[in-house]
Amino acid sequence: MQAQIRLTIDGQTRAVEVDTRATLLDVLREQLDVPTPKKGCDHGQCGSCTVLLDGRRATICLALAVAHDGATIITADGLADGDALHPIQQAFLDHDGFQCGYCTPGQICSAIGMLDEVKAGAPSHVTTGPTAEIELSDAEIQERMSGNLCRCGAYPNIVAAIREVGR
């Protein structure tokens, strides 16, 4: 069965006919030629497909496209303002927060989403004390980013990049 949906991807609204069983990741990559979110595990466990979906980080390999008709999606490609990189993107470059780069788009989107969660006072498993003043310690960052895996092991540099922007 097919359905017509509309998605706003990195500021551009697009209409697409999708199979009702298709994931948002497959629609973006295979039908709309948006290669930035990566297919890693296809089970929602690695975070390579993380984007900002209606302002919140989401692994889209498990999200049915038809369930997100009208959604706004920001990929790592949609974060820059012209030639000016988003602060997280710049910090990843400055701190060498990537090696092969495969997980980087998902790591960057997840980092932005988790920093928004911290600003909103959302606690994590390691949060102690009042949530209005969450200390962005390495343990806090590691816990909040634990859904994004890096096969190259660039974790110390990723944490340093997030810590810098989170100050």
UniProtKB/TrEMBL annotation:
Iron as UniProt keyword = yes
- Every 2Fe-2S ferredoxin-type domain range: 3-79
Q: Name one Pfam family in it.
A: Fer2_2
Give the top-rank taxon of the lineage listed in the UniProt record for this protein: Bacteria
Q: Which keywords annotate this record?
A: Iron, Metal-binding, Oxidoreductase
Note the CDD domains from the entry.
Answer: fer2
Q: Does the keyword Iron apply?
A: yes
UniProt cross-references to PANTHER family, sorted A to Z: OXIDOREDUCTASE WITH IRON-SULFUR SUBUNIT, OXIDOREDUCTASE, IRON-SULPHUR BINDING SUBUNIT-RELATED-RELATED
Q: What is the protein named?
A: 2Fe-2S iron-sulfur cluster-binding protein
Species source reads: Nocardia halotolerans
Source taxonomy: Bacteria, Bacillati, Actinomycetota, Actinomycetes, Mycobacteriales
